[in-house]
Amino acid sequence: MAIAFYTGQDEKYCLVDQGTWGVAPSTAAAGQGIHIAEWDLKPMVNFLNPNRAKAQRYNYTSDMMANEKGVIHEISMPATPFLKDQGDKFIYGVMQSVSEGTATPFVKTFTFPLTQPDFSANAGHFETLVNKMPVASTSHYVNDAVISQLTLACAPGANDGMLTAEATWNGRGHVENFNYNGTITYPDVNTADFFYFWDLTTKTINATEVTLGDEGFKMVITNGLQKLGGTSGKPETYRLTFYSCVTTVTALWDTTLRTAMAAQRAGTAVSLVFGWGTPGADGYLSFTIYGKWRESRDLSHARDGSFVTLTHDGSGTYGTTEPLTVLMANAIDRTW
To answer: Domain range spanning residue 208?
Structure first.
């Protein structure tokens, strides 16, 4: 008997744009490939086994039930390069608010919404995630997928100095016998499509240049996703209960950091800015985080020439100052 051998390298992972809430894409829908080797899919199932007397001292078969009522399926996407032609989908997937320029390079401005989009009315941004397998009718998909947590990290000593993204996706539907045959196109991976630590054009605290250490910076963006309502045995939609952006910075202990610690003791809000490229040009990317230092760590032996780690908690003022503003230009008209 001939045996076919497959490994994880024979699989593909992609995002498929989903235009209508609750409707999975066709088997031939095009996908945008994700540069990862695998992801961790947790298809949720409710296993029920009521404990009741049936005149026997072992489980009763008809009492052992399973269903998927009210469940949310979770995908943990490992760190992947944050690419010029893909990263905006990750940002939109967690922040759920964007305005896009009308001409090249189509600058996208992301903020936290004061009122969340109504996904059930096809607002906001949701995707179908597909794991394409090499054998027909064995591919997986999770649809109505929204990111609940996105971690962005950039450090000279990790991932070849590239900005990376890892995400927790949450979806309402899971199918494991999908016969997917759509065309998967991967975003470009030329030098200009990555964001390298060494190419940072802006890295400031309150507009003053800061020297980052080997651990660089890390941002954890969350939106407090919870399931809401019910229809046909599934949650009807999601509610995004609380947006946050917690940033960890490893920086040189110097005058700038001393000023930052003075701001911490006074409870004064400060801004962090990390950016690449030229404003208004293709390839521009910037993160502006406004808020207060959460805690002072590694300061017991701080001295000039050493590096310390600080944690910054994004916060804002209603209708004026945003906790987090992301600007990204990639010359792609997303029609967002």
So the answer is: 9-45+68-328
User: Residue ranges of the alpha helices (H) in the chain?
Assistant: 87-95, 255-266
Which single residue is written with the structure tokens 């394409």? Answer: 132
pLDDT at 138 > cutoff 60: yes
Distance CA 327, CA 329 (A): 7
Say whether pLDDT at 9 is over 90. Answer: no
| Four-point Cα dihedral 324, 325, 329, 335, nearest 10 | 100
pLDDT in tens, 302-321: 666 788 888 999 999 988 89
- 20, part of any domain: yes
How many domains does the chain fold into? 1
Q: Is the pTM of this model over 0.90?
A: yes
Residue with tokens 């610690």: 261
Q: Report the C-alpha gap between 166 and 152 in whole angstroms.
A: 7
Using the predicted structure, report yes or no on whether residue 182 has a pLDDT greater than 70. yes
- Confidence label for 114 from pLDDT (cuts 50, 70 and 90): very high
4 occurs within a structural domain: no
Q: How many whole angstroms separate alpha carbon 274 and alpha carbon 308?
A: 18
Residue 91 lies in a domain: yes
Nearest of 85, 52, 47, 79 to residue 66 by alpha carbon: 47
Residue 105 falls inside a structural domain: yes
Instruction: Report the C-alpha gap between 189 and 81 in whole angstroms.
Output: 9
Separation between Cα atoms, residue 34 and residue 50, nearest integer Å:
42
